[in-house]
Amino acid sequence: MKSLRRFFERLFSSGTRQTQEERLREEIEEHIALQTAENLRAGLSPVEARRQAMLKFGGVEAMKQDYRAERGLPLIEDLLQDLRFALRLLRKSPGFTAVAVATLAIAIGANAVVFSVLNALILNPLHVPNAESLYAIQHGNEASLSQSYPDYLDLRNRNRTLEGLAAANGAIAGLDAGSNPSRVWVYEVSGNYFDVMGIQPYLGRLIHDSDEHGPNSAPYIVLSYAYWHNHFEDDRSVVGRVVQVNKHPFTIVGVAPPDFHGTLVFFNPDFYMPIVNAEQVEPQNHLNERGHRWVFMTLGHVKSGVTLAQAVADLNSIGSYLEKTYPKDDDKRSFTLARPSLYGDLLGKPMRAFMTGLMLLAGLILIAACANLGSLFAARAADRSREVALRLALGARRSRVLRQLFTEALMLSVMGGIVGICGSVVLLRGLSAWQPFARWPIYLAVNPDANVYGVAVLLTVASGFLFGAVPVRQVLHTDPYEIVKSGSLWKVGRRMPVRDLVLVVEIAICAVLVTSSLVAVRGVVRSMHSNFGFEPHNAMLADTDLSMAGHSGESVAEMQKRMIHALETIPAVKSVGLVDAAPLAAGGFTGALAFTDETTDLRPGNAAARAYMFSISPEYFDAAGTPLLSGRVFGWHDDKNSRPVAVVNQEFARMVFGSMAKAMGNYFKKRDGTRVQVVGIVGDGKYSSVTEAPQPAMFVPILQSPSSQTYLVVRSSRDAGQLIAAIRDTVRGLDAGLPLYVEPWSQALDAPLFGPRMATLSLGVLGAMGAMLSITGIFGMAAYAVSKRLRELGIRMALGAQRKEVLQAALGRALKLLSFGSAAGLLLGILASRVLASIVYQATSRDPLVLTGTLLTMALLGLIATWIPAQRALSVDPAILLREE
Fold first, then answer.
1. How much is the pLDDT for 493?
2. Which helix (H) or strand (E) holds 243?
3. Are 767 and 110 within 8 A, CB to CB?
4. Which pTM value belongs to this model?
5. How many C-beta atoms lie closer than 10 Å to residue 592's C-beta?
6. Which end of the chain is more exposed for a tag (fewer CB within 10 A), N or C?
7. CA 166 to CA 212: how far, in whole Å?
């Protein structure tokens, strides 16, 4: 307690320093005056009496220092003094201050933004209790989390290493709460889903195991907080209300908490419903079909004390049981565990690689910014060499001088950090509120949390110490007497290996970013002009599911025909086709196993191909702009009463039949043993991703493989706005209660192209930052070299040196470093393009345009950075310069 009281007394005395100093001065003067008076009485002269009194008292300044150390807090006082001095210096150099603050703000802000996205998507994606032990079951031979419902039940009931196993599936439904029916996104979940996740309701209750008593036994829904807030206006009386979901009555039993958005990090459903009632939302009932893997993901917590290897071994033992018990449906079953937030390794693996690379590049940009500021700070210290030398000559400790330099550096870093953090917060909040696709409930919740702020503060402090430490060596080895005579803090030699290396690394980083940006841009351009297997331009997609309006059975096909014929009557419409899942636009696709006609054992492992399967109307290929390479298209006579037929793509023909010629007119078998005849062949296309390798696909008549999911392809050159209104009016005239979403097919490609475009934008922004830092780095080195060698350059010109020789002497080192850094960065950029290839379609750095563009960009940066120093070097007047010297 005494120590604490003494500390506060000192702190208080530090706050009243002026009063204490005045009192101390008065006490010292009074003591000296008393001693002087005594000396006068002893017969000394006034001057001698004063001198003797001073000698007897001792050093006045030393006494003051001892008193201040005893009564105050010297460290705090010195720190305040350093802060005031640093602030005065920065005010005197507004240009330097502005450049330094802006550079740090950009670098720290970029790191804060990238880390926030990394934190939201990779490090802490799901807001559920014990998220670190939550894993999804992934197939061992493919990056897929889907399971059949019977397999899910076996995995749930037979495993011994997971604390419960939940299932979830996404779907679209029509919700009618009493007004106009709307199209909503649904999470179909198992009864134990919320219990396994450890989620508590915000309002009412959630869905539990006790609600399930067989198919269609639990007509309950739980609203998401966002949907309840936006569509029910926070009405608490909504609990217990009965609404219509696809014309089936469901009771709202509760509202989920605000921070829970499901278990797919970027997908926010509108409500949750029991998976046992999926038949009332999905067009077909697959609950008992073991061979149909329609459940989107299964996930649970690994038990405490159980390792991942033990859990995987336990699951694989269940896989072996399934293989033996159900060989026809579960052939070669093996499992592994993956994080569910980015759908296992399908999205997680490329996203982790990309975000790690992006974070590394952002960190390198910060290092480059610190290197630039370090050079500027060292040059600034050199300009203040006489001041530093005088302070040292007058007795100042070197540690005191260094502390003042570090204070100035930290003040700059704090100012830059504050600006960068504020800018990143604004940007991140905008990203969190942004919905990139109106059709999909995709949100990127990247609001900064304590981790982000902590990293930003750490980077801010570290940056100050990093670039503030650059002039330390020079200050520690400074001879103040030599400085006073020469006027320079250090001599510029021929070699500065550390600084040169830093600048080469900085230029290489810029070259990597420029190369990666150009690779990504070229990939996106290729993806927009590549062959998708259809023509998205001048084509409109009208998406609906007829089950949302209560259509089922034979009425589905009848309604689909009526819609096609009605839309064909719209003026300027050339053709109308129908497909159950539009390529590159639909969220889910039907997969089908294809066997050769000779295969009798129809287990999955014996399949010749796992192909996409599309149910289409006869007019689809014409409306979609898909060319028929050989054979014929379907007709409305290809129905359930006729022979099963299919049109396949080239990859399907190659994998199943060996060639196109062998495929035409021949048969293949489906999983149920049905023999299907190939009546036509179309070109390969892109179906679920623009980066996918050629995939087999089959197209079957909609009447032979009916589906209530309906994408109407309307080809017309009419104005998009007018055509959308006409399509909606026409369909509303057929069924006013049918939710419909209409958009251009080219706009629907925004979703599959979102990743490549964001990668391109991110790399472009970082590339621009790297370019700015490279310019300042090269400019700083060239300008400083010219400044320190002006006398030498003047002598060279006086002796008859040519302009080319002067430029080579002044800028040769900077241009050599630019060449070395550019070459190293180009090589690293070529390696980085392998990561980009998994995100951006046909991303390759071997493109001549990419190589040429990188070289031209780096040359242009070098020209811009050295232009002013070159002009200064060439404008040297030897006579004036030598006369001044």
1. 46
2. strand 242-245
3. no
4. 0.75
5. 21
6. N
7. 13
